[in-house]
């Protein structure tokens, strides 16, 4: 392992908790080079919703490469991009009655967020943005400024401004009405709050500790934005692509955000790709006003097209995620209830699940215990106090049970 | 073409100059879906230095995918990453006497720049950065703030601060000593210049109009940084990976930057990947202080490893680029000299070449004329007045001549 | 009046509500040039706490000028400054057990605030500051950034950053615990709140609409600051110098702020002067690091010294303000109760009083009606909905009754 | 002197060089409390252009106070303000063909600058401002951001942004054309310079080291501003009111700035007062959008009115300042020439004069030697290397000679 330690920066993190060298992967499983299998309840932090190297996508990808399909095409027109746009329109937008123009903002989720913020500011002529406590939107300067984690914010080396954090759903355990404070500030011309161009929100905060907003809170947020002429940006980078059940995580709430950020699993195979979907009338950009090198990676379009058509042409996957997600949730609840003195909480929705522990140390130990038992899961939350589960949506029933069992044992081993 | 117009944002740009739908690609050639070949003198804006779908890289990539190698691995340890780090160390760093720690900052060049700026600020405790006139470093907020183009800057929607532009090499056509103004400001405690954490520079400005800094200017810049305790960041995203001849574009100057940004052709196949190389003693990051989803794309490591070992284990490619680049440069000079009244200028170095026209309109027409003749090249420069050539480094002698000939005809057709 | 309209900027404001030309002034009375007296319930927005041209101060001032005492002395040592510092120490600080170093920050309240913010940031190395809804701290860029009024903020022409507004006492009518939101944000490392250098607060918000914080709220605020290592800045520019009863408005709460801003009535005669009082261990400034031309106006020191010794050597004035302030408050309450359907509220403390009307239009009409009846008072609050009373502390009992009577009539005339 | 040391902040500065306690003052003389006279070649840093306690102004002031004229009047209409506006119009503006609306921005020069910057940004919708190397404009956040001195900038505790420093006249000793760099940046859409709302300039930099811009440079600056639609702000706080000869320091250049800042000697007696003069069509402020407590100090209006009418109704004072200023300049040149090996430089214009020494230490010693000999002068410049002379404009011929003689002796004593 010495080359990693010798050459890679101290900033590396996941490798610290999982100190093996991975080699192969299939479905829900990662294998270390000595052949040990690991049940992957992390799934690339949500970038592998259809599991590792899904056979259908794999074959399409190999065929495309084999045939010398264009690989890299900036924002030129390509057959691969056309196929993807058609699939997006037919499979996702039209059936849901959604009208969006598509921006290819760059290869990653942070690019999708940066493009969204830029556009919102350009359109409104306002600089301020409202974000939420424990939000995570990315590591580039614009995305970082709307991210909550103080360690990550500190890395910026400059004061992060133009964003004001507001309490996320149930930040005060429901003791106070939703948007109480925000609405008061917006309506009071003497409040000192800079008038916001946009509000950016995750429907479930993954990095923030698997905090799932209620649909009524999301609806109220959408109404508030409309009332105050604020653009609503849903960052669906981690929770989109079916993570919570429906393709878009905001579908259950019945809202239509002005701007939607997608990435992670949009290519379906782990290849970098991102989208910023914008309300058609917001498409006021000059040609090239936002650009970038990696906006036309055709292999990602190819796997993305196949993923959309294969998994989202009907509601099979959505129903499966809801059902298995519920089973997973119940499993976690049982674990929580088995340790009544440990003040655990089962959290989440669909296949974005977690157990909140008393502190980050405990959660870390549980993840370590799970790793020893062959399951990959990670901590999240401001103090790393939540063991976070983001398994592939394609998890089998057996793998659900297997995962629950390992987690049960790991928790028991740590809390014993 | 209607799906593109119907669904893709107005922000699209390259597709406007090249209104065909591309399908296949091989070596120096792109093919539209109706089978028309285009000689690619743009090469993914520098992301395809080894041409399209290089057979050796293609085979390695297919093998990797076929064998279910891990595709997406965050920053876990993988065999693919280990192989890449070893190649990087053996082929690039050691032979050049360079000592760097490697940061995987995210999938694109802007991520490499953002990580570089963050680190420079964190280390020095200073916020200000010096950039250069007509610099281009990316579209995310941190990278955009050190970029020159006013249209792109305007897209930010917030004032871009913390950066002060200084004149790039020969910005005043050599009438004034290098760094005259900057040194005076740095030495004058009353100058009002915020003390800079870092200076960020491209050795050849691609987007800025193919402005190649002289090696003595780069050396003087490096000396100035050392003298004033300023970190020197070389953004080698476009000019690295052999674009100007040597792997690192700063090798000819004999300098050792504190931080180097790489992306575009580092994966060798057009798959998103980026690196930030940092002086070992600058590696002060906390684990996870900078992170991101797409920092461990194994297919990019695989093609990157093969590209390094295949093209950079000896100096064959470097010599070839120097030689063919000179031929290309001479070809452009001949074209320039054939139009003595048109005030043209041949610019550039290695395989980063250009012709500066009187205005952007003329340059645009020349590019359009070339497109009609089956050659892809684009404009750059503040007013789009430079026709920019970034052909694959693997261009054959015949393709060099073919390109020169098409450009010659295109220029003649427009200036006639 | 034409020279005013012809030459003075549209930015003028008070002259719009009181369109007469004033000439002379004595005690609680201003006289227009045609000899009409006006009972001054505005007192220079709190700059004339001892009334206009108090005979004792006037004589001291004339004597000083007559004897060619130094008028302007930058920050040199002068006899006048020495006398002032001695009086400050003997009359104010020592008897109250307060230890402060004195900064002469410039001539006005905004200078006192700017100096306070600069010092707090320098000491802590943090940029962020917490301010409160409807705060007013001044019109210079630093002071404006912690001010709430959106119209005034808009005048800055740049985004005002580095400050986050928090709810002032009873912003939610007592429905929520004090500092509920702020404490949660401070304790949550993922909240996204930039760690604050300081909290700046007025004990009674004058411009904000005569909002008087409860002493228990102020105490809790002080405790919170201590607990989280945040500097507490009390802006006593308008509420200090006895406006609420005691010299420092925070005395009733029994707290000791880290930094105190004074101005307005500190010179006692309306001559510009300001002080920033700082905890001795915070005195880390370099000589001249904060300076300015008008920091040593001896006439202000002279009247200031006499004001301190005459009015604050015992508790006569303090008791009088408390008693008459209560009478004034009761008078306002009677007026409010006489109009049960008009949803009026009597507000304030000491001689900082007000009536809140349903809207700014009504409050403006009441002030206009009072002006017609020979009483000066102004509106405040985010929508100008509060008629604000800041009479001289030296108001006689008869003038209290006279004022109440005019206000009663004016309210009746408007609400009839 | 213990009360000063015990109670006053370390930030005090002038008192360190002149460690005596001053008491009385008349004309060009300050007296310490033990009766020692000091010839004042500092004149309140330019706030006492008519000397200390000028008899005519003194009598007018005493009369006004004696008669209970309004002292403090916010921005109400007063007889004192009317008289002042009339004098300003009749004596200053009309005869010079200048049309300005008058803003009373607050009590000091920094307020005048803050108002100017706010207005320029509001009007243009741009945030950026160009300032000059070694500029000094004040200590509040807006004014400080356009000030050069790094020690003073460091006091801000936040990054000072939105301003870019450009080289002042002869910053490179005339080796380079004026505005060479600035014009190039403005004309190059890729330069990375944020488009400026305004350029702020002193015609002679006092704090910056008595750098007097040539009239042709000022004219070129004015032309450049017109050409590029940039507002020109002349900060005449220190150099206005006759300091360089004419009332406005820019008169010799024949330019008409869009905005002019005045303070220091505008009241004529050392009482705080400031003006921002704005081109009539720039008067777009909302009532009260910029306000403040100390904008209507009638004693300052009274002495200001008398100063304008007495000193500026004809050109007697202007001619005298030019003549005596030349004599003073010649005297300094003789001193400089008497020390050919010490690399001294005589600098300045009118009664803004200085000698530049090899370093700040020498200049400081010369000022100390002058103090011992009964003359007050101070250092300026980025390293305090310039002994700065700002004597009263009313200096007698004898006092000119006396000053020169003391300076001659002091220089000789230090350089011996």
TrEMBL record, chains A, B, C, D:
TM annotation in the entry: none
Sorted UniProt keywords: Aminotransferase, Pyridoxal phosphate, Transferase
Named cofactor requirement(s): pyridoxal 5'-phosphate
Gene Ontology MF term list: diaminobutyrate-2-oxoglutarate transaminase activity
Pathway(s) annotated for this protein in UniProt: Amine and polyamine biosynthesis; ectoine biosynthesis; L-ectoine from L-aspartate 4-semialdehyde: step 1/3
EC number(s) recorded for this UniProt protein: 2.6.1.76
Enzyme class of the recorded protein, top EC level: transferase
Recorded family membership: Belongs to the class-III pyridoxal-phosphate-dependent aminotransferase family.
PANTHER family: DIAMINOBUTYRATE--2-OXOGLUTARATE AMINOTRANSFERASE, DIAMINOBUTYRATE--2-OXOGLUTARATE TRANSAMINASE
Protein's name in the database: Diaminobutyrate--2-oxoglutarate transaminase
Source organism of this protein record: Haloechinothrix salitolerans
């Amino acid at each position: 392992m010495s080359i990693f330690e010798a050459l890679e920066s101290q900033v590396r993190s996941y490798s610290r908790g999982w100190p093996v060298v991975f080699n192969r992967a299939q479905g829900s499983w990662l294998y270390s080079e000595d052949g040990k299998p690991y049940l992957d309840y992390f799934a690339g932090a949500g970038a592998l919703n259809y599991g590792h190297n899904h056979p259908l996508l794999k074959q399409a990808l190999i065929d495309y490469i084999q045939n010398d399909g264009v690989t890299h095409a900036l924002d030129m027109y390509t057959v691969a991009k056309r196929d993807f746009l058609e699939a997006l329109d037919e499979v996702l937008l039209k059936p849901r009655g959604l009208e969006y123009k598509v921006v290819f903002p760059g290869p990653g989720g942070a690019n999708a967020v940066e493009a969204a913020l830029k556009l919102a500011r350009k359109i409104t002529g306002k600089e301020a943005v409202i974000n939420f406590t424990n939000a995570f939107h990315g590591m580039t300067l614009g995305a970082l400024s709307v991210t909550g984690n103080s360690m990550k914010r500190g890395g910026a080396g400059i004061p992060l401004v133009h964003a004001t954090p507001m309490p996320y759903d149930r930040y005060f355990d429901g003791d106070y009405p939703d948007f109480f404070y925000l609405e008061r500030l917006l309506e009071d011309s003497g409040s000192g709050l800079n008038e916001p161009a946009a509000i950016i929100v995750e429907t479930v905060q993954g990095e923030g500790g698997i905090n799932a907003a209620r649909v009524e809170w999301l609806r109220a947020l959408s109404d508030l934005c409309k009332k105050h002429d604020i653009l609503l940006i849903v960052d669906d980078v981690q929770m989109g692509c079916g993570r919570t059940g429906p393709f878009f995580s905001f579908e259950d709430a019945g809202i239509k955000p002005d701007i939607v950020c997608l990435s992670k699993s949009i290519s379906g195979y782990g290849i970098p790709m991102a989208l910023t979907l914008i309300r058609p009338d917001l498409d006021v950009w000059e040609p090239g006003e936002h650009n970038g090198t990696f906006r036309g990676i055709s292999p990602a379009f190819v796997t993305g097209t196949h993923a959309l058509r294969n998994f989202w042409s009907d509601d099979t996957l959505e129903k499966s995620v809801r059902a298995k997600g519920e089973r997973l949730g119940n499993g976690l609840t049982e674990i929580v209830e088995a340790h009544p003195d440990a003040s655990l909480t089962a959290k989440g929705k669909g296949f974005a699940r977690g157990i909140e522990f008393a502190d980050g140390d405990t959660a870390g130990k549980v993840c370590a215990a799970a790793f020893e038992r062959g399951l990959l899961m990670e901590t999240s939350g401001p103090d790393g106090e939540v063991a976070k589960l983001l398994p592939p949506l394609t998890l089998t029933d057996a793998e659900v049970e297997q995962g629950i069992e390992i987690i049960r044992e790991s928790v028991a081993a740590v809390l014993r």
